[in-house]
Amino acid sequence: MNDTTGCHFRPDLHALAERYRAFAVHQAAGTSPTLRRWAEAVADDPALLAPLASLPPGKQQPNLVFAAARWHGARPGDADSLRELFATRWVAFAATVRTRATQTNEPARCGALLLGLQRVEGPVALLEIGASAGLCLIPERYSYEFNGEARCEAVSGVGGPAGGAGLVTGGAGPTNGAEPVNRAARPVSGPAGPVTLDIRLGPALAPPTAVPDIVWRAGLDLHPLDPADPDSLAWLRTLVWPEHETRRARLTAAAALVAEEGVRVTAGDLMTADLARLAAGAPRDATLVVTHCATLAYLDEPARRAAVEEIGRLGAHRLSFEARGVDPAVPRIDAPLTPDTLFVAALDGVPYALGNGHGTMLTRP
To answer: According to the lineage, what is the superkingdom (predicted)?
Structure first.
């Protein structure tokens, strides 16, 4: 897409309006009344659409725009508050949109990853691209409750002596490796208390019986976030939709746990040699699994295909949780598109679950 600053460029307000209508219907409906009202207001008001169209195309997405609006004090769901923000504080608002990213780090997506990791022979070397603050890099450190009954308990610390917390590598270093770890299979908690993920499974999906044996992990992100940094944590909390207080509390507890464990995410670009360089630190006797959750959507179609091919060259399994139609290796799924089937989880391009964008509802494709 072209730069909107060109003097002869006419932004496609109709396409942008349809994007916000689709967000209202397929994502916000039934789960965030305030964001649905905002999205419908934007879609119906050229005075709101026009300034948004002046932003770079990759920065026009509703999640980012609405998080930035709340960051600057706009009242969720109040269209007049949004208009007032655009009219009086556009420069500050636009600067936030341009310099920040969604980087929604939803730990509940680990439920979808857990189902996929059950299909991989361990021990596992886990590498996440688009890792943000690393909250999806410690799936075995969370406890899981499936359909309010079946539980899968977390293991103890991911590094150091048995039962203790320690450093998980994946940051800059001569090898990007990790020492073998000993872990006791017992429930754990971080400074904010135990982190339990409540996942609803459809009737054809069986809950896993154990968490995976992860012996090494690494994260890659263009702009990693430090979960221990107050500003980064505040932004992550703002990205959680207004009504989702349970998600916000879960994110806060997960961030405290990640900070306690010392999980590190490396700054780098998956479209360069950064990915292969990071993967080279994985132990050779472990199964390398590259994961990405809601990451490919930020790339154009040729870049998505290139990313999938690059992961394939690593000889790794690829575990994805992306919006339907985004992963070029995942075949088309005929199931109705609803908020609870918006995303597809796939292992090496083969779908094994559909779910909502937050991973709290999973069903068979």
So the answer is: Bacteria
